[in-house]
Amino acid sequence: MTLHAQTSDLLPGFDHAAFDSNAVFRVLLDAMSRPGRVYDLPVHITAPDGLNASATATLLAMTDMDTTIWLSPGCTTKAATTHLKFHCGSPITTNVAKADFAIARCDEDLSFRTKLSVGNAEYPDQSATLILLVDDISESAEMICRGPGIKDTHSLAVTGLTPAFHAWRAENHHLFPCGVDVIFVTDTKIAALSRTTRIEVK
């Protein structure tokens, strides 16, 4: 009886787990391979309080019991942690330095970003991925992106990014092959900046 009461309160995950997870994974792979391009979330999913649909779908597609998640104060809710533990099986940490995926709202204090794992020369893939919940993403010329996966240049605009964020991103780029990859998510859109991407802020 108790188990039924607990599970009945949970929001569902993907409607079609294998198909939806693969569809989201492919969009994320494209977004990382083509930095600055804006993609539509390819599935419908209900997000728990503290997250949005694209953040939820990203975590369901990318995490499992071997990946550790850190949630910022603005994203930390009982609903979010319960949802992720149940559907992903992922450990939730309070130590951002141990996170494989760190999730935050763009309008929060993002000073934690300097504590994220950047990997090391032997294992640069052991770096963290930062997922930022933002109000809007477009391909307006707020940032001019250059680098691998971009022919000449590509424009990207993300609502709410601060000069301090851009300064951190520039430092992060110079750590290559180490460094943090960033995924921006609205409720329906996804864009990414890999550690290889150079940015000129207009």
Could you explain how this protein is built, in words?
The chain is α/β, with parallel strands linked by helices and 202 residues long. The chain has helices spanning 2-8, 17-33, 53-62, 78-88, 163-173, and strands at 39-40, 69-71, 92-93, 101-105, 129-133, 137-146, 154-158, 181-185, 189-193, 198-201. A hairpin with a 3-residue loop joins strand 8 (181-185) and strand 9 (189-193). The protein is built from five helices and ten strands, in the order H-H-E-H-E-H-E-E-E-E-E-H-E-E-E. It is globular and about 45 Å long. Residues 1-8 have low confidence and may be disordered. The termini are far apart. The strands form two sheets. The chain has a seven-stranded mixed beta sheet. The chain has a three-stranded antiparallel beta sheet with strand order 7-6-10, covered by helices on one side.
Unreliable spans are 1-8
The ordered string of helix (H) and strand (E) elements is HHEHEHEEEEEHEEE
Beta fraction of the residues?
15-25%
Calculate Rg over CA atoms: 17 Å
Strand count, sense and closure of the main sheet?
7 strands, mixed
For the termini, the CA-CA separation is 58 Å
Overall mean pLDDT: 93
**Helix content, binned percent:** 25-40%
User: Which class of secondary structure composition applies to the elements?
Assistant: alpha/beta
Features:
202 residues, alpha/beta, 7-stranded mixed β-sheet, 3-stranded antiparallel β-sheet, 5 helices, 10 strands, globular
SSE blueprint:
Blueprint: H1 2-8, H2 17-33, E1 39-40, H3 53-62, E2 69-71, H4 78-88, E3 92-93, E4 101-105, E5 129-133, E6 137-146, E7 154-158, H5 163-173, E8 181-185, E9 189-193, E10 198-201
Parallel strand pairs: 2-3, 2-4, 4-5, 5-8
Antiparallel strand pairs: 1-9, 6-7, 6-10, 8-9
Helix pairs in contact: 2-3
